[in-house]
Design a protein that fits this description.
alpha+beta; two-stranded antiparallel sheet; 11 helices; globular
Length: 438
């Protein structure tokens, strides 16, 4: 082969590589191949419920006061103990939201339900195993054939941005709200997950529960002109350790009188976990899609694995591993206690090992969970991860739990923590790789 022909072939290959890598960089646009979010057919708790409704195997009952909300919660197995109340105008039906009429949120491991008093619709977001957050609404009008309507563009303005890891996802925001529920944006907002300092949490939310001397932004309304100029230093002493919210709103308008502090803490952990699972899913599928195209163009074997693909999978998996193992979790300094019974309801649903231990067991004294590994490792979203990223995640978690990784990110895991999590997963997590049993 002449030098010229070799150089030409190399230049062609580099050109192809550049074009494919450019397309690869754009793969985070989830409307492109291989995700095609809006065109793809979802398969999740809502689509299954709609199929049952259409087949006459399920029925939604319309309540004169709450519309379809109680029936939807019942069909989706979402407990009313999960109710949280947000009064900042930061969602779809903002004209209905006010400190006197907050929006209620209910959730389980996969579904989030939003309800506004006298609202036009029930809002639903579901963690679809292959598409991430998929958004629906259900009109609050009695009909013989209730129909869930899927939404894409409008919801993704907020729920498909940097706040959600650039994938269709969920977010819990903390703001400084004025007397009308409008965020005072000049003072900034916080995106909240389990790594957020306690003092930054729940601005614009009602919070029922006790937490000792730890302070938060919940139950705070910035009403005076003085506080509006310096909301960070507004006095919120009356908003701490509140057990009864009836002095702040008419709680009879809601299914329960609570906005449980433990439910809020689980909600903020879970939302980001779902986002990171979706990101790992999307990034890996995109990497494999463009690797396949590159192999075809460069006449490589179909199973040739490029370093760039390995790097992409690793960069998507590592944040997921850290989050699942509660790396960077903000510490608690005093006991947390809710008011709605959510703590007991949530823990009871845990899969237990032969010693009665579960990843849903709470600590609530120094951290959220007794065994710091997310219960979402059992979720359909985790199980639906592409094999390549799931295998990487399994290997890394085992490596960390086996004490081979004692880096700063995992220094919060004691030897006892690692052993307990390892034992729980070995007994309760289906389809573990064979090397986990060693």
């Amino acid at each position: 082969m002449s030098l010229f022909s070799f150089a030409s072939r190399s230049a062609t290959a580099l050109g192809i590589l550049f074009a494919l890598l450019t397309s690869f960089a754009l793969a985070t646009d989830f409307e492109q191949e291989p995700i095609k979010y809006s065109e793809a057919k979802p398969s999740n708790a809502i689509t299954r419920l709609q199929e049952r409704l259409d087949a006459g195997q399920a029925k939604l009952t319309f309540d004169d006061e709450f519309g379809y909300l109680p029936s939807v919660l019942n069909e989706l197995k979402v407990s009313t103990t999960s109710q949280t109340l947000v009064f900042s105008k930061t969602s779809l039906q903002r004209q209905r939201i006010h400190p006197r009429t907050p929006r209620a949120l209910y959730f389980n491991d996969d579904v989030y339900i939003g309800y506004c008093h006298n609202g036009d619709l029930v809002e639903i977001s579901v963690a679809d195993p292959t598409l991430g957050a998929v958004f629906y609404s259900l009109d609050q009008e009695a009909t013989a054939k209730p129909k869930f309507t899927r939404h894409t563009d409008n919801c993704l303005i907020c729920h498909g941005s940097s706040h959600t890891q650039q994938v269709p996802g969920h977010m819990v925001r903390s703001v400084y709200p004025d007397a009308g529920g409008y965020p005072i944006l000049s003072s900034g907002t916080y995106r909240i997950d389990h790594t957020s300092p306690f003092r930054q949490r729940w601005g614009g939310w009602y919070v029922s529960g006790t937490h000792g001397k730890q302070s938060h932004l919940g139950n705070l309304i910035i009403a005076s002109s003085e506080d509006k100029t310096d909301p960070e230093n507004a006095d919120n002493s009356s908003g701490q350790n509140v057990k009864d919210l009836s002095t702040k709103l008419n709680t009879s308008r809601y299914l329960t009188p609570h906005s449980d502090i433990v439910a809020l803490m689980v909600l903020e952990h879970q939302g980001m976990a779902h986002n990171l699972l979706t990101r790992a899913n999307f990034e890996t599928r995109a990497a494999l899609h463009y690797e396949a195209a590159l192999n075809r163009e460069l006449k490589q074997p179909a199973d040739h694995r490029w370093d760039s693909t390995k790097s992409r999978i690793k960069s998507a998996a590592e944040p997921l591993v850290r989050y699942l193992l509660f790396s960077g979790e903000a510490p608690l300094t005093e006991q947390i206690a809710g008011t709605s019974g959510f703590t007991e309801h949530f823990a009871k649903a845990g899969v237990k090992d032969s010693r009665g231990r579960s990843l849903r067991d709470f600590d609530l004294q120094t951290r959220l969970f007794k065994y710091p590994c997310s219960y979402l490792i059992y979720s359909p979203s985790f199980d639906a991860l592409p094999d390549e990223v799931k295998e990487y995640t399994f290997k890394r978690i085992l490596e960390i739990l086996s004490s081979d990784d004692t880096s700063r990110e995992f220094s919060h895991l004691s030897k006892a923590d690692r052993q307990a999590i390892l034992e729980i997963l070995r007994e309760t997590k289906p389809n573990l790789p064979p090397y986990w049993k060693g």
